[in-house]
UniProtKB/TrEMBL annotation:
It is a multi-pass membrane protein. The lineage of its organism: Bacteria, Pseudomonadati, Pseudomonadota, Betaproteobacteria, Burkholderiales. Keywords: Cell inner membrane, Cell membrane, Membrane, Protein transport, Transmembrane, Transmembrane helix, Transport. This is Biopolymer transport protein ExbB. It comes from the Bacteria.
Amino acid sequence: MDSQFGIAHVWAQGDFVTKTVAVILVAMSLASWIVIVIKALDIMRFKKYARNAQDFWHSADFAAGLNKLGEQGDNPFRQLAIEGREATAHHRKTAEHLHDSLDVSDWITRCLRNGIDEFTARAQSGLAVLASVGSTAPFIGLFGTVWGIYHALVAIGMSGQSSIDKVAGPIGEALIMTALGLAVAIPAVLGYNALVRGNKSVLNRLNSFAHDLHAFFVTGTRLNVDTSKPGAVVTPLKKGA
């Protein structure tokens, strides 16, 4: 590209507002890519935990199942299993408070739901950045274009030269800001949609695991574990810690 045109020339010739818009767009792009990379790695890790969760039900007892889930502190499946165990033990050992008079099924459901809600909030953190970038970056770029066109037209009017070669350059340079805004917004929108789908997949597996945990702690069995035998009930685990 000719050195007289392009982003470098826009930056060199731009005023404070143009440079501020460009810096904002670059910062928004960096923030969105950081969120995309970090959250994508998190989803990959959570999906690995979900695969390991299938081995939990093929353990001799609950302690062995926890070992198969792993020792990672950020494993939502391990945390959910521990919360369910602690909820069951708490309900059976004390009845001093109002919430302890709840039915054991309701109490375990409440504790498991709290665990899922906490993970959901953690999984969705950062997505607001992508949503904000995707929705505002095009308009910020458009503002930079309008500002650039205005000043280009003012400069052309003051010079008294209105030929196409004198108009095309400044106007084309101003339009670069719109292109930059779109270049920032499109990855943010695509990344947001991909991360939402990934989180939904993990949450579906976590909800299914929580349902099985609830059945196990209440009845001592995991329900419907064999899809080839509808209604099948097995007891692969013992409740001993």
